[in-house]
Amino acid sequence: MITADGKASPPLRVAWLVWGLGALFYLMAFFQRVAPAVMTDALMREFNIGATALGNLSALYFYSYVAMQIPTGIIADGWGPRRLLSLGALVAASGTLIFALAPGFALVGLGRFLIGGSVAVAFVGCLQLANNWFPPRLYGMVAGMALFVGIIGAVCAGPPLRLCVNAFGWRPTILVSGLATVAIAAAIWILVRDHPHQKGYRDRVSTPINPALDRRPSVLAGIRDVLRYPNTILLFLIPGGVVGPLLAFSGLWGVPFLVTHYHLNPTRAAALTTTLLVAWAVGGPVFGWLSDRTGRRKPLYVSGCVLALVCWALIIYIPNLPLTALSALLIVAGLSSGCMIISFAFVKESVPARLTGTVTGVTNMGVMMGPMLLQPAIGWMLDRHWQGALADGIRVYGLEAYQAGFGLMIAWIALSAVLLIFTQDTYCKPRG
């Protein structure tokens, strides 16, 4: 369509290119999120650390990621996606290079912390580009594609990363990923623009991505407002109990557990944990669609949470499951954990429209609190129950130790199921 000023709407191929470069950065965010899972043995041997220290190292990503959630929205409003994403990618690349080249454990931790804080901007930036460059009717689909691209990053951090670590070592492999992130930062700066008119096209007429991220006299006032609604507090605590077990297992502790107690090689173990993530990516849209279709949030959320709880309990407390049964349970656990996507629609409908953005940021913080707390807590429990066994200089943890550590996952997801009982269903209708 060409308007009176002679400008046409941006072709979809251009929109996909602009958005795709931002999505590449989001892919790297997921890659870095789960990469330590296939390098546990190498990192523990290199720095002579136990499970507690390794858990804290991995969780540094989530500490800074969670802390950046609300500030990211404010920064994004003022800077626009081009500057936000390119600077974020550059800082992420710096953190990755520090991680790869660090001579000691403290600098490795600094690199991990920088990565988490910088990639926290990736999803918001992708949403901004989707809003600015695509027709409104495609916004939901493009936003959903972001999760799909992110899962590709997680898949790359599974067996492919393990094969590269086996062939070249973890430092050269991570170094290459850091250089790739530098290239992504440069491509975003050169090719991406905040709005179509900056490339000679007509701007899309669209609503803001997140109304609550508009400038406000006080962000804290908005947070205080949303906490007045009971569903906000409940839906801050609940999704962490669903996502935490999934990312604690797939992102760090699942591979050593499967290697030690199912005698899988690390590559095959990584493939199983990657399957868990892929199932999660599929389950999210399914649960979201079903809740929209049925007009109910609470019953589906409760069902998914309880099913995930049962699957995790069987995986953890029944030793020596047949590999097919174990694989099936991991797939069902991933699919059912997709119920957490309901949190965002549920909580947005629980508060007035003016608080939508703020409550989304608060809920997303709750989501990431799960892996942030569970990864180091499981490591602490593993060390407490370590019997002194070593293999090639690294600690080997018995089944009792893993059951004690993973018991924390069971406790939180069970708590989530109980807390869901006290939520008030919105019946898919926004609050007045």
Shape: globular
Straight-line N-to-C gap: 37 Å
Number of strands: 2
Main β-sheet, in a few words? Answer: 2 strands, antiparallel
CATH topology of the largest domain: Growth Hormone, Chain: A
Radius of gyration: 22 Å
Spatial strand arrangement across the major sheet: 1-2
Task: Enumerate the spans where pLDDT stays under 50 for 5 or more consecutive residues.
Answer: 205-217
- Summed up, the helix count is 18
Q: What is the name of the CATH class of the largest domain? A: Mainly Alpha
- What string, H for helix and E for strand, traces the elements in order? HHHHHHHHHHHHHHHHHEEH
Look at the helices and sheets and give the structural class: mainly alpha
CATH architecture of the largest domain: Up-down Bundle
CATH superfamily of the largest domain: MFS general substrate transporter like domains
- pLDDT averaged residue by residue: 87
SSE layout and pairing:
Elements: H1 12-34, H2 40-47, H3 51-67, H4 69-79, H5 81-101, H6 105-119, H7 122-133, H8 139-156, H9 159-168, H10 170-191, H11 219-226, H12 230-261, H13 266-294, H14 298-317, H15 323-337, H16 342-348, H17 356-384, E1 390-391, E2 394-395, H18 399-421
Antiparallel strand pairs: 1-2
How would you sum up this structure, described in words?
The chain has 432 residues and is an all-alpha fold. It has 2 domains: 1-209, MFS general substrate transporter like domains (Growth Hormone, Chain: A); 220-432, MFS general substrate transporter like domains (Growth Hormone, Chain: A, Up-down Bundle). 74% of the residues lie in helices and 1% in strands. It has 18 helices and 2 strands. The protein has helices spanning 12-34, 40-47, 51-67, 69-79, 81-101, 105-119, 122-133, 139-156, 159-168, 170-191, 219-226, 230-261, 266-294, 298-317, 323-337, 342-348, 356-384, 399-421, and strands at 390-391, 394-395. It has a two-stranded antiparallel sheet with strand order 1-2. Strand 1 (390-391) and strand 2 (394-395) form a beta hairpin. Helix 1 runs antiparallel to helix 7 (122-133), helix 1 (12-34) packs antiparallel against helix 10 and helix 9 (159-168) crosses helix 10. It is globular and about 70 Å long.
